[in-house]
Amino acid sequence: MKHNAEYEPSRQMSLDEVRDYMICNFDHPLNVTTLAAMANLSPSYFGDSFKKAYGQSVMDYVTSLRINHAKRLLRETDMKLRELAKTIGYSDEFYFSRKFKKEVGVSPSAYERASERKVAVYSPSLLGHLVVLGIIPVAAPLDAKWTPYYYQQYHQRIAVHLKAVETPWNDDDQEIMLLAAKPDIVISHIELPETTRQRLSAHGIDVLTLQSSGWREQLREVASYTGKETACDSWIAFYEAKAAAVCADLQSVLKQDKFAIIRLYRDGIHLYNNKAMKELMCDDLQLSLVEEETAPCNRPITLEQLASLDPERILLFVCLDESTRINWLTLQHHSLWRGLRAVQNGNLYPLPSNPWYEYSPVAMNRMLDEMLLMITGKSPNAIQGVVHGAPFLCEL
């Protein structure tokens, strides 16, 4: 046990410093009176301030540190219960067992035998990795406005709804909600700050940072970590077969038609693509774009340049702000716009940001469905994939 936070009796500690001391010394005897003295506060005022700042009472926070560390030891070691209890600060193994069952819902021995681990994610797109493996996280970003698909499908099954913020680890409320979910593992797309990793580790929470850039490889990483390799292989095989079927249907309609992906923002026109769309259209569906960009782009172009490209088909994003809407209403009356082949032939396809801005297995599957329906008019339900006895499309 490392004790890097030292208590200096001559110096008044801040609330954060007392919390850090607790994190580093949770295996020592701790009580509200002693901790309050470190901050030069009365026990009652210290207790109220602590709960307001961190969402738990002082001793509940200590219990959380101890029990979560016990969960990690149960997962990673063969330590005997008596030794484990002493390691985390309990002298009585029977008291520890009762406390563990109260907090976790099962006894230490039952937890040790269980193969399923509680997972939390910071990103909505990572939720799109978990659900195809049959994993429902205990905490994930869910919002009726920003993540409508996942909210509608899973809001009653996910206990803690995190906020969809760009830097969740800088949000104290977000961290409080995450800790309340008591996950065993947090999965992230990007490397979390070391201070965040240390705090999660102090609560016995492992962090899996995905190293791969492609969704298939990311899915395999998650599957390997959670023991879902069979489900992963089945889902990828399902997707590949479905993509091949959709590709054949589209090619019979499109022939040599080329696509432009256009994004309208304020008074500008942008030639656009993102990682998900490029993989879907160019790799999975073997479609052609008017200009083959090697990387995601959002390049401004003029209406005259678009008219010069004159694509057979246009996928169109219109941002929702008022100035963009005015630009879009005006653009529809411009002779150059109305003269585009895609517009004249009714091959203009407005797209929502959801799922087209997301990169995940679920999003890729949904985009396949939308492409099939937009181009051919065929219902995606005609292409079913059955894995483990259940049609995927009923779930996704």
TrEMBL record:
Entry-linked InterPro entries: ABC_transptr_periplasmic_BD (IPR002491), Homeodomain-like_sf (IPR009057), HTH_AraC (IPR018060), Tscrpt_reg_AraC-type_HTH (IPR020449)
Pfam families: HTH_18, Peripla_BP_2
GO terms, molecular function: DNA-binding transcription factor activity; sequence-specific DNA binding
Domain of life: Bacteria
Chain segments annotated as coiled-coil in the UniProt record: none
Segments forming domain HTH araC/xylS-type: 16-114
Keywords, in A-Z order: DNA-binding, Transcription, Transcription regulation
Location of the Fe/B12 periplasmic-binding domain: 118-379
Protein name as annotated: Helix-turn-helix domain-containing protein
Source organism (scientific name): Brevibacillus brevis (Bacillus brevis)
